[in-house]
């Protein structure tokens, strides 16, 4: 479990043309990532977020199927982390959330994310 100065979160990452690493577990050669614009990734993630918030979809199930992060194998679970361990925009968004909340779109060098704070 996370210590007092740590948080725990899950996320869904959609990579795009501007992502620093243009490959993922589900697109090892980066063919889809290299043709996905940031705008298209944001629109896809907005739709996913709406489905989750409305109860049409489960965060962990969607993360397992859709996320470009290897944490998808754990339903998007990143485990506990402290300040300085994640990219700054991701860290700031996670710490700003209350447990159980889901972020708006968060932009990092890795791509675009939605984050669910779990502890």
TrEMBL record:
Basic residues compositional bias, start-end:
13-23
Catalysis performed (reactions)? [protein]-peptidylproline (omega=180) = [protein]-peptidylproline (omega=0)
For this UniProt entry, the molecular function terms from Gene Ontology, in alphabetical order, are: peptidyl-prolyl cis-trans isomerase activity
What residues does the PpiC domain cover? 4-119
Q: By its UniProt entry, which Gene3D superfamilies does this protein fall under?
A: 3.10.50.40
Superkingdom in the source lineage: Eukaryota
Which keywords does this Swiss-Prot/TrEMBL entry list?
Isomerase, Rotamase
InterPro entries found in the cross-reference section: PPIase_dom_sf, PPIase_Pin1, PPIase_PpiC, PPIase_PpiC_CS
Q: What single Pfam family name could you report for this chain, choosing any that match? A: Rotamase
Per the UniProt entry, the Enzyme Commission number(s) are 5.2.1.8
Q: Where is this region: Disordered?
A: 1-30
One GO location term (cellular component): nucleus
List residues traversing the bilayer: none
Does the keyword Isomerase belong to this entry?
A: yes
Function, as annotated: Prolyl cis/trans isomerase with specificity for phospho-Ser-Pro bonds.
Q: Which family does it belong to?
A: Belongs to the PpiC/parvulin rotamase family.
The protein here is known as Peptidyl-prolyl cis-trans isomerase
Say which species the protein is native to. Brassica carinata
